[in-house]
C-alpha cells in the first residue's frame, strides 16, 4: 500500500534556503506527500493596503515547505517528483509591482536615474469551483476573470558542497524557476547532490504569464500533492520536466541568452541520448521542432525552458518510464481520496 504523508508547516518551520537546513520529514520512495505551501509573502499581504515593503521583512520572502529527505537518494541519482494536484488554499491571492524588481524597471544591477515604479498591490478573488482568478484594475474599472492554471514557481533540492542558496535564486538545483510548465500532471527531475536529496517546494501561483514580467505571479498559498521516487545511477545536470506530451529542459543564468543556451544544450544532448542520434542530428531536430517557453526574466538568475513534443522523438522514453508509473500512482490516489 502506498504511504501517504500529510505535512503543514508552522510559520517558524518554513525554509528560506535550499541547503543548510535539517530535513523536516524522512520518507520512502513512492510516498505521496500532501503539502501546504505558503505564498511568497508568507501570507502577510492580504489586501491592497498591505505593501510588501511595510508588512514583509527581507530576507524572509519566498518561503518553501521542507526540506524532505527521500531515503536512498544519493549524489549521482535523480529525484523524480510527480505533481499530482496543485489547488489554491484560499479564496484570494495577490500580485504586486515593486520599485526595484521586475523586468521593466531599474534594479540594483541595472542602475538608472529615472524614478522607480510605484509599489502597488492587486488582490484577486479566487473561485476554485469556477476555475477563475479575477483581475481588477487598480486605477480604473476594468476587470476580467482569468482561468486558473496553478503552478509552483519554486521547487528543488539542496545544492552540493555544503552550499545554501536563497530560495529566490534558480540554478542547477532548481529553485525559483517560475516556469508555468510546472503544473499538475508534470514530473520534475532534479539531480541529487546530497544524501536524501532534501526536496523543498513553495511559491504557488494561481497562474502566471511566461517571464513573470512584473516580478510576481498571482501569488497564492497551495494545497499540493506530489509523489516522489528515486532513479538510481541516473544523473540530471539541470532540472528537467516531463508531461504526457512533452519533454522539457531548464537553464537558469544571467544574461538570458546563457539561460537559453543551457536549456537548449541539455535538450539537444538529452535528445541525442534518448533517440540515439548524432549530436548534430539532434541539434537540427530540436532547431526545427523545439519550443522555448520563458520561465522568468526578473529573478537573481533568469530561467528558460526548452520543450519538444514527444511525438517527434519516435516514442523514446525518459528515465525508463518513471513519469508514466508515477502518473498511474497519482490516478489511483485521486480515484480513492
TrEMBL record:
Gene Ontology MF terms: hydrolase activity, acting on carbon-nitrogen (but not peptide) bonds, in linear amides
Highest rank taxon of the organism: Bacteria
Record's protein name: Acetamidase
Provenance organism: Micromonospora terminaliae
